[in-house]
Amino acid sequence: MTSMTGTSMTGTSMTGTSMTSPALQEVVALLGCPAAGNPAQYLFERMIAAAGLDWQFISLDVPAERIAEAIAGVSAMGFRGCLLAGPLRAAALSTVSSASPAATFAGAVGLIDRQPAGPAGHMTDGRGVLEALRSHIEPAGAHVLIIGAGAAARATALELSLARVARRRTHRDGRRPCLSPPLGSGDHDP
Predict the structure, then answer these.
(1) How many of the other CB atoms lie within 10 Å of CB of 173?
(2) C-alpha span between 117 and 125 (Å, rounded)
(3) Which residue of 86, 129, 177, 190 has the smallest Cβ count within 10 Å?
(4) CA–CA distance from 147 to each of 150, 163, 167, 172, 176 (Å)?
(5) Are 88 and 47 found together in one domain?
């Protein structure tokens, strides 16, 4: 980073909605309820160091009923973005300026990044599961069991359907598993 009007390592302009001075560090936060014990800070600090970025990662405890204030604060302080944990994920969806299709489908936000129009919410859990699977098998045509029906399971079901799995089986709340055809087929989970 050589000047205030240059670009950061991610290509984002350092004026406007990004950093206003090369002397300031980008900040990324974990907002949790609770945040204690979440491994995100440990993992992200190592990734930031490995990438050679001069960024800070902090963990903050935020009660679910105050998530809108916390996201407004993250925005007001110019944080690069934040990760959300626990019950904050569903509560945050209504507080972002825009939401990705995966976040809208999952009904939750796991990641918020700074955009010119305001905080943008994303749900990347499903994409992470899909990419992890792809390192072992090609999901297209596979039969898959998803255990759970929360936001991460919904995001995973979406990504697997887009990857053209043959059939999803969803198991939730201790009930009997139900067969789930690919999304968009007109049939729905019972």
Answers:
(1) 6
(2) 24
(3) 190
(4) 9, 18, 14, 6, 11
(5) yes
Same domain, 43 and 80: yes
Query: Which pTM does this prediction carry?
Result: 0.73
Q: Give 108-130 pLDDT, tens digit per residue.
A: 999 999 999 999 999 999 999 99
End-of-domain residue from the set 77, 101, 123: 123
β-strand 178-180 against 167-171: which pairing, if any? Answer: antiparallel
Q: Is residue 21 part of a domain?
A: no
Number of independent structural domains in the chain: 2
Burial of residue 84 (number of CB atoms within 10 Å: 0-12, 13-18, 19+): buried
Q: Which domain holds residue 30?
A: 26-123
Helix (H, G, I), strand (E, B) or coil at 99: strand
Location of structure tokens 């999304």? 183
